[in-house]
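In the previous lecture we treated proteins in isolation. Real proteins rarely work alone, and many bind small molecules. This record shows how such a complex is specified: first the sequence, then the SMILES for pyridoxal-5'-phosphate.
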Amino acid sequence: MNDTAKPVERFLPFTRPTIDEETIASVAEVLRSGWLASGPKVAALETALSDYLGGRAVRSQTSATAGLEMALLACGIGPGDEVITPALSFVATANVIVRVGARPVFVDVGLDSRNLDLTQVEEAITPRTRAIMPVHFGGLPVDMERLYAIAGRHRLRVIEDAAHAIGSSWRGKRIGSFGDLVVFSFHPNKNITTIEGGAISGGSAAELRSIELHRWHGQVKSGPDSFDTLLAGGKSNLSDVAAAVGLGQLKRLEEFNARRRVLVARYFELWGTDAPVRLPERGDAGHSWHVFTPLLPLEQLSITRLAFIEAMKERGIGIGVHYPAIHTFSAYRALGYREGQFPNAERIGRETVTLPLFAAMELTDVERVVNAANEILRGARK
Ligand SMILES: *Cc1c(COP(=O)(O)O)cnc(C)c1O
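The predicted 3D structure, ligand included, written as tokens:
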């Protein structure tokens, strides 16, 4: 750096959780209470989530990954079964299918929506198909009417990966307030957090019972001084410490998501007519904007994505990548998948960049990101 270097601005990460003092105090209270594992706070969080989701049954877990896996097990899905899922998501979506012994059957996604292509879903159904696992990518709801019509026609269960979609709604109805089994994530990068954590909304009585057993050793009380173990369950129960964080976060969810919508509106406004990136589908007021992920037009640029990310970092701006296409990973090539099968997912995997978006951001932060990206990309046009 020379004398004319600009003053250093604070680093702007692509995401950062907002934890208020009241929440921190409530965690301290739990820590002093003597009860740290699953207890009254977990029960209160499940009730609060249930109230938020129109009164549906909610069961919390230590992660959405655990929740998705238990949802599959609760639906009786295992070896010999197929589950249809998008080729573009966080890898957990497909990993859980493999972990229960079933086969993930990928379909491509929309280039701008990033959501699974429902026409391809219908074409991918075989006699072995047991479930569809859609992802509401970035918080943009999948077309729920068409999805559930397909599932109904073929008698398939739907396990929604709603890791991005807490607070999203489809035609005025909150994601998780209807549908089969809907799984949320409360990882710190998500719209609200419990540090690590997740929750399943919905499920039949039998599925709920199964989820509870898988969540805690398969154990039930069989008498005043005796337990029985009904199945070889695992252990994925949330702690009261985590639930206290979640209760504080849930109170702010609507405010956080409203802020995300305002920030995204500014991105769209600044890039309205002449964007040097390909903007994602805008959706409507039901979009919860977990991530803002334009595509770089790499074919028109003389720089790579990595060079763009590094140039942004030099300007104090953090960039994420959500996500490489799942079928291109080694574990999925080993299942027979190959490059070229899902062109949109692959192109998104190559070109996507996640720009800063979180509730504590300022509108001037958006302007800073747009100015930096414009400068880098306009200077790199072929
Ligand atoms: C974050 C995420 C998960 C996993 O959530 P965890 O709570 O970290 O297990 C699953 N699917 C998608 C699409 C995600 O983004």
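Summary for your notes: DSSP finds twelve helices and eleven strands in the chain. Residues 94 and 104 are 6 Å apart (CA to CA).
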